[in-house]
Amino acid sequence: MAKSKFEYVKQFETEDRLLPNCWIVVRIDGKSFHRFTDTHHFMKPNDERGLNLMTRAAQNVMEDFKDIVLAYGQSDEYSFVFHKSTNMYNRRGSKIMTNVVSLFSSSFVMLWPRYFSTQELQYAPAFDGRVVLYPTDQNLLDYLSWRQADCHINNLYNTCFWKLVQERGLSPAQAQERLKGTLSSDKNEILFSDFKINYNNLPELYRKGTILLRCKDSEPDATTTPTRTGRQMTLVGNHIHTKARPSTIVLHTDLIGAKFWEDHPEILGAKKP
């Protein structure tokens, strides 16, 4: 680039290089998504089309950014975990965050017709983003556990809330008052006693959220069968791995306990060159 007398303005740019040897997490969240889902007639309490669209957009991000070792999503949010040794964009936080958010947002819009073929997009959705550093493996595990616990707490509440509104005829204010001060055990009892629903039998997609991992070169003791949609499901141990793209695996399973991390030691391991 040719130099000019105006180039001095670059001195006003701030350096935002992230600390080395820390896990980098970029979390995106939908902006005003209550209004967005109402405008676009999302099914309550969960719209599988919307959740699958979020996951497909997240897969686009993982396809483009190879240093992401894991992504976790629930509701209108997704967290992308970059390996602690990454030197992408010289670890410039704003560069990493803005590229992830912009690619996710554009993917969400472009893929919308595939999942909402009968619902035209009324206006452009927006997502915000933040970058957080976690210096230890345990810090990272606790962060992901926090997000999955949040998924469970919110889904249990929303499942009860919308059952009371849709099937008991309560107003939103009445349903909110009915659930005020209740514990998880109380909500489970409401679902079972009033609606004959065992919360633990609801789809794990709703209760546990979605985990995206990179495909291994080979999966030991794996069997593969086609699904009704033509996609492949790989059974590894007790987990069903849905091979949604050549480079990613979709899981709906517990990541709070130790077993997940024992089954997938490569996530926290050394980054391959």
TrEMBL record:
It comes from the Eukaryota. Residues 138-256 form the Thg1 C-terminal domain. Its cofactor is Mg(2+). GO terms for molecular function: GTP binding; magnesium ion binding; tRNA guanylyltransferase activity. GO terms for biological process: tRNA modification. Binds 2 magnesium ions per subunit. Its EC number is 2.7.7.79. Keywords: GTP-binding, Magnesium, Metal-binding, Nucleotide-binding, Nucleotidyltransferase, Transferase, tRNA processing. It catalyses: a 5'-end ribonucleotide-tRNA(His) + GTP + ATP + H2O = a 5'-end phospho-guanosine-ribonucleotide-tRNA(His) + AMP + 2 diphosphate + H(+). Mg(2+) 1 binds at D29, G30, D76. Mg(2+) 2 binds at D29, D76. It is an enzyme of class 2 (transferase). GTP binds at D29, G30, K31, S32, F33, H34, S75, D76. Gene3D superfamilies: 3.30.70.3000. Residues 6-135 form the tRNAHis guanylyltransferase catalytic domain. Belongs to the tRNA(His) guanylyltransferase family. Homotetramer. Interacts with MFN1 and MFN2; functions as a guanyl-nucleotide exchange factor/GEF for MFN2 and also probably MFN1. Adds a GMP to the 5'-end of tRNA(His) after transcription and RNase P cleavage. This step is essential for proper recognition of the tRNA and for the fidelity of protein synthesis. Also functions as a guanyl-nucleotide exchange factor/GEF for the MFN1 and MFN2 mitofusins thereby regulating mitochondrial fusion. By regulating both mitochondrial dynamics and bioenergetic function, it contributes to cell survival following oxidative stress. This is tRNA(His) guanylyltransferase. It comes from Batillaria attramentaria.
